[in-house]
Structures are given as structure tokens and as C-alpha cells.
Amino acid sequence: MSTETTPPNSTSDHASTAKFTELGLSDVTLAALKKVAYETPSPVQAGIIPIALKGRDVLGQARTGTGKTAAFALPILERLGEPIRGHKPRALVLAPTRELAVQVRDEVQRLAHGRKLRAIAVYGGKPLKSQIDRLQKGADIVIGTPGRVLDHLGRGTLLLDQLEVVVLDEADRMLDIGFRPDIEKILRRCPRERQTLLLSATVAPPVERLARRYMTDPEVMDFSPKGKTLDTIEQRYFTVEDIRKFDLLMALLQREEPAQAIIFARTKRGVDKLHRKISHKYPEVTCIHGDMQQRVRDRVMKEFRAGDAKLLVATDVVGRGIDVSGISHIINYDMPQSSDDYVHRVGRTGRMGREGIAFTFVTPEQGNELTRIEMLINKLLVRDEIEGFQAVAQAAPPQEAPADGAAPEEPAAPKPPPPPGQRPRRRHRRGL
Q1: Distance separating alpha carbons of residues 264 and 360, to the nearest angstrom
Q2: Which CATH superfamily is domain 5-222 in?
Q3: 233-400 is classed in which CATH architecture?
Q4: Are the CB atoms for 26 and 76 separated by under 8 Å?
Q5: Measured between alpha carbons, how far is 85 from 24 in angstroms, rounded to an integer?
Q6: What gap in Å lies between CA 251 and CA 271, rounded to an integer?
Q7: Fewer CB within a 10 Å sphere, N or C end of the chain?
Q8: Which pLDDT belongs to residue 339?
Q9: Average pLDDT of the chain?
Q10: Which of 31-35, 139-143, 197-201, 424-428 has the lowest mean pLDDT?
Q11: pTM of the model
Q12: CATH 3.40.50.300 occupies which residues in the chain?
């Protein structure tokens, strides 16, 4: 694997002056970009497109919301040009979730304006027959989740013998949720003479091993900021007892009046319960998680993208596939299971350089988890408070304890929470 790396700063500098007309794109593509109102390439687009147009393999570290879909879609469209006889698939894009597969397909279709290329999405939760029918009618670009792509390969309804380009989008997430065996089976079925583009928010050892095994001397390009989150995203936290989290959420929504917000809960049951409770006061709330039927998930995302739903309660699994530019607020109602999940949640706002704000609810027992997040993003979260709302019951200082040594009101509590303005005692260090 090539050790040549494009530094983030030099890439950003290039993007500040670059134009799409300078990236080697055809007139047809430039006309399509004008139609969808793409004026200036993002750093990811300015960096990847010229390299990909040369046919090089690319390993790009880039978060969602940075324009990475167009960064790999435009070189694919340029390479394919016009469809060949039979519309056999010549490009394959693997994505971790159904929602992301649909978003990529829609973006490819927009950017393919002026060409006769056809793109379809294949994913679980939809009948196989309808997808088979579309594949038989011809598809130049197939976007799908690994499981469903492998299913079509096994049935012989998807043929890869004319494949020219393979894209692994959000590779780290696909590996996180267990798709590595499926991905490797698919890549082994692809022609050896192909171009491979791998996009990942983080390049952990499993991603490196995948690239080393299935890519040919890739150009390594890092578009991640120095910290793990964008500077345009303001990040705050509340210390709150678990039983008071919902009251705090209602007070926060009333104070912030978000244009659009995603509220993250840890479990599917938690999403359903929270959605029901919020809907009593905010009818414009909806929810999404992995147990919902695909047609329902599609309807939910359509409503959210259109702005008909202002609040979306979601789990991490589907939250990673949500790319909506109008999200102004992220609320981590439940702490994420990992620090990396925090990065991906917060990344749902502040899209394409817009400003955004993220709030995280932290119980007194979760102080160490907050510290780990701060160490990962190399930034201290700011403690927030809501006037008139006592997020945590205050404990009386030792010198003010009753002289007769009377027991406190709640002797069962193992540790009293900290007073406002102080961190939980278990958080003995800050990550810088």
C-alpha cells in the first residue's frame, strides 16, 4: 500500500481555489453539476476526483457530509461514459445501510443527468423479485448492502464479469457491523483488473488489512480534520440523572426550537418508547430503527428529508446512514456505545460546513465515558444548564451536614451527584 498521503491542510487549501472546471471533468458532467447547483468542489472532491479519473485506486479517509458521494460518483460516470450493450453492471458500490444505499443511488442519478446510464439499489427489506426484474432490464451501476448483493450473486441475478469499478463506502461501518466476510466474498468475485475506491471515516487496522489485500497500490488521502469532529459543530453536555432525562429533553427542545434534530437512543425499544412520549407534545416527531419494515423506513426518511418531520428518534445503526443537510441539532439522549459512534452521531449536523450543535446527556456514572470522548476528539465539551431546571439533585457539602449525624434522605444512593459546575468525581482527568 502506498505511503503517500495527502495532508488535510494542503487538500483544504487546494479546495478553496479549485473549480470543477479544473478537475478534468467532461462538458456533460459539468452541465449536470450546474443543473444540481454544485458550484465549488469540497476538499474531498477536489482531492479524489483527479486521482480517480486517472484510474488509480484510492483509500480516502473522509467523514460523511464532506461531499464524498460525488467524489467517487463523478469519476465512475466519467469512466463509464455511455452504457454498453445489455446494461451489464460496470460499477458496484457497497454501503453499510439501506438508507445510505438509497441516498447514494439518488445522488448518482442526479449527477448522471445527460447520460443514459442506469443505477439501481439492492438491499434487504424489499422483495427480491422486484430487484431481480430491474437487474434483468439492465443496470450500469449497482449500489447495495453486502448481504443483499451476495444474495443476488448466489442466485445468479447479478453478474460482475464486466465490472470496472468497486467502491466501499463507509468501510469502517461495514466492518463494525459484521460485513467483513460478505465483503471479502464479493471482492473475490470481482475481476482482478478493476479500480477500487475505499472511503472510510476512520482507518483502523481492519480497514488497512482490507485495503492491503484487495487494493492495488492505492493513493492514501486523509481529509479528516485534526480533531475527530468539524469545527463548525458546537458540542455541549448536561449532567442528569437517568430518571430526569426526558424532562431535560422537553426543556431543551423548548429552549432550542431546532429546525431539525436527530435524537439518538441506544436501543430499538428505547427509540419506540421515546417516540411515543415525545409525540404527546411534538406531533412532528418520527422514528426509525432496524426492526421497522423497509417501506416504513423509506416513508420516514422521505418525510424527514422533506422537512415534514422536524424531530427524528433513531438508533446508531440507521443513524449512520442519514445524510440530511438541514439538521441543526443532535441530541444524544443515551450515551453512544463507543466514542467512534459519538463522532458519527455528531457528524449528522454541520453538513458541508454549515453550523450545528450537539448535546449529550451524561448520567453521574458515565463520567469516564465522557472523558474518553473528549480524548478522542481532542476537545473539551462545554457543560450546559437550563435555567429553572435542576438536572441533578445537589448534595449538601460535608460541613453543612446535620450535627446530629442524621442519615440523608436517600441512603440507598451509592454516590451523590456533583453540584453544578463540577465534573463527576470519577472523572479524574480531562483528555487534551
Answers
A1: 10
A2: P-loop containing nucleotide triphosphate hydrolases (3.40.50.300)
A3: 3-Layer(aba) Sandwich (3.40)
A4: no
A5: 27
A6: 19
A7: C
A8: 79
A9: 83
A10: 424-428
A11: 0.64
A12: 5-222, 233-400
